[in-house]
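Ticket reopened. Same input as before:
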Amino acid sequence: MRLRALIAAAFVALAPAAPAAPAAAQDLMIARSAQPFPEAMTALQAAIAARGYTISRVQRVDVGLENRGYKTDKYRVVFYGKPEEVARLAAAYPDLIPFLPLSVAIFAEEDETILVTTNPALYAGMFPQPELKPVFARWEQDLVAIMEGVRKAGHAWLGPEP
Amino acid sequence: MHRILIFLLGLAAAPWAFGADGAALYSRHCAACHGDTGNGGIGVPLALPSFQASIDDDYLRRTIRHGRPGRVMPAFLALPTEDVEAIVARVRSWSKAPRMRYPDIPVTGDAKRGRKLYDAHCAGCHGAKGEGGHGTGITLSRPRALPVMAPALNNEGFLVSATDTLIKEILMRGRAGTPMESFLKQGLAERDIDDIVSYLRGLQKGTALPASTEAPVLVVESPYDLKTTVENVKRAVSSNNFLLIREQGLDFGLVPEGREDRSRHIVYFCNFQFLNEALGVDPRVGMFLPFRITVVEERGKVRLMAYNPRRLLPMFNNQELKDLADELTRRTLAILEESTL
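Engineering reply: fixed in the latest deploy. New output:
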């Protein structure tokens, strides 16, 4: 088990930017990890940190729902950003503020885990300032690497296909 | 010359001969929703033997290309043909049954009579207008009413993908492992089934979600200072049946505690019944949770800002979210207005 976790972590750390995002043609980026929720959450946070971002907090959506009697599997939202970048963008482009910091939803589907986030390329259509274009492009590239890293970590967890 | 021709033909066939990696392509484009082994999730279970037995390769090809407008499944228009073929081969590899082929010839029947039969036998799961069941796929993350979402039969993507003969086959045989039972076993005759197929073919198409031209952000100016405005937002959240979740600076958790910028303040709030309903309709909406309003002070002016749910709606390709997005927009505007009265 520990060896698998190490291999999975190595995949996350070493994952290069993939040529195409999972479901890259769409406004949403979705990825499935073969890992159970706790391990996938660890992999996600490691992948976010590996791209130079800080996790600001994790919203425990499932806990709130269960406390009020609703049934749900694990469901969290991970917020992250780069402190200087968030401050700079919020000052220069206040309309971006409702979308900051960035976030990824992560939830369990039985023994596997799903990650969902907005493809930052979508923001380019909402905020057409040319200076923002490279910012969104970099976010997209980072998210591709993050999602792909978590997905590959899940495959490494499973071991090679028979 | 012959050698050159053979060489060129060989080049043309190369992608097929060497084969795009179907498993990798499926894993990248499909597995997130349909599961690594086709067991389903947000998407329907493609490996289900009765599903595999009742479709043909063309149905899969067209489904990949056209998707299901307004029903979550995206259209993969830009995928190269060899990639589509590789994905089809991957999906079909889960079935050992002989592959069927359903010719694209019309099934003729009495659509008027078919409508009555549809209302009696199909509408309960597929909706009065063929708009389909609620939720997504088999939704493993939370309780659901049916083991699998009933497809939208009025969906343009479905009607383009499924031939009359394929639909007829499903009605005749049913799909084991789903609530879809054989209509022959339910006592209907082949003529009745032809009538239903004829009615389905003429269904008014469901509409896809058009791209929104609304502003991405809802903004209102406040006549009050930042502190008073934040207190007003908290009161308005409560009077609009939301629960205050937390308040924090925009840069909370990003900068050391005590050094947050106090001019940008987020108020998070939630209505758990609304949230539960939204996640039941589509579990992918989470990255916009919890709902929030940000109060910003700039050069002596205080503004309230929130993302516009109606602008974000098209990204989910889920018509079922429309009413919820409208309702959330309405309530957000009410909170913004009440906070700045």
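The first helix of chain B runs from residue 2 to 18. Residues 236 and 289 of chain B are 18 Å apart (CA to CA). Please confirm and we'll close it.
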